[in-house]
Amino acid sequence: MLVISAVSGAALLPESGSSQTRTKGGKSARDVSLFRKQYADLRLKFTDSLLNLARVCDEQKNLPDVAAQIRELAAPIDESELRLIPLPREVQQPLKADLPVDERFWRTQLRSRQQEFAKELYALSRKSLRAGHVSFSIDLVREILLHDSDHIDARKILGFVRNGEEWVSAFEKEKLKRKEVWTDQFGWLPRDSVDRYQRGERFYNRRWISAASEAEIRHDFTNAWEVKTEHYLVKTNHSLERGVELARKLEDFHGLFFQMMAGFFNSAADVEQLIAGHNANPRANAVKQNVVHYYRSRDEYIAALKTETTQPIEITRGIFFPRNMIAYFFYDPDSDDDSTLYHEATHQLLSGSRPMTGEIGIKSDFWIIEGIACYMESFRREGDRFSVGDPSHIRLRAARMHYLEEGFFLPLRELSRMGMIAFQGIEKARLGKIYSQGAALTHFFMHYGDGRYREALIEYLSQIYSPTKAVRENPDSLEDLTGIANEVLDRQYAEYIRKLAPPESKRREPGLPEADGP
Known about the structure:
The chain is an alpha+beta fold. Helix content is 50%, strand content 12%. The strands form five sheets. The protein has a five-stranded mixed beta sheet with strand order 9-10-11-13-12. The chain has a four-stranded mixed beta sheet with strand order 1-2-15-14. The protein is globular, with a radius of gyration of 24 Å.
């Protein structure tokens, strides 16, 4: 069960430190299998009911197009990627009284089947939540809204509030209340300012000036444009339009990431509070914005950061500094690759969610810190849908090539023993291969067996990023969290990586060596 639905994720974000002081010994993946089996049984029963309805539409009602649509709803889910499917904004309307008899029949039957399935999913979601399986429970909640879009408790959990005849985030409702509208070119604007912006005027320092005049002022980064969205503050001296584009990409990324990693950001108690309606006030639960600085040139980026770090900033395409929680990037006219953006955004979201008092991954387990970031580089948008985990992504193809053609593989036990310092001491060529393996291993733990190890991986990350030093420096192993011996996990990974994508040519594809870089 890997399809996830598109929502703001606002409710799934407690105040920093509210629930993340968890200790070792959290719920592992080993006892979630019972709930996954129950889900599979429910899904099979629902699918059979849809196929029966499609058969009636085909054979008795002579509605082949309708039957095809219903069969599409019953189609198996592609498990190779995690996908974010947009949910309807509109409140579901009752069926019209004047519908033709046959249409009223199939619409009534379909709606009834979907609502019944949603009720069963909600009951299972509550059971799995009480057992401590937050991520699996939230997966079920997302699916509920694909079948019953007005399910009140599911909407609460995922951060929706009703605004007239629409479901929106609490943040968006507040904006609409203030008579602001979102524009893809200029971001959030007062409704009565949109026309003037489109005519080339800009509101700056309490007065209207030309767009050209504003650009001249804002090319100095101290006067940079500030684009504010629900979860981001993007400062840039490139252009307002580019800042808005970047913020929109990051919001899309945030939506998938926070839902995919629900168990990292929320405890069972947090979700229970959401169900009780205790997180509905957007002002009382203000979301801390992630700060991004985006420079209009590589030279300005280097000049701004060369005194900030001892690392050779010249070789980076972006960087995140945990000490100030800012992610830095620059405009590259020769590239439209956003992999660095999503890599560093992952570090920012994970680090920014916890009140950290020390470095992470110092003594051991550093691989997953970079592995999850490399895996998230595969995030992409297709129309109004988002996905992560594309098996053809360059990191995953590189890992597969290194394994099949070169026999390169570090056993999980050996990999987990390595901390940050050990990683930093590895020669560059070998380090690149380890980064690619880390991305592929993350894919394995996220997707294998319909996500049977995903909760274990999320708990593993939760402990590695724990604000409690004793937990952070001595996390439970994936062997303990999954209940599967490391050697067995290694063999499962080997089988998985062979099947992850079709066999490739022995010829190295363009770009593979670059993708191996840290």
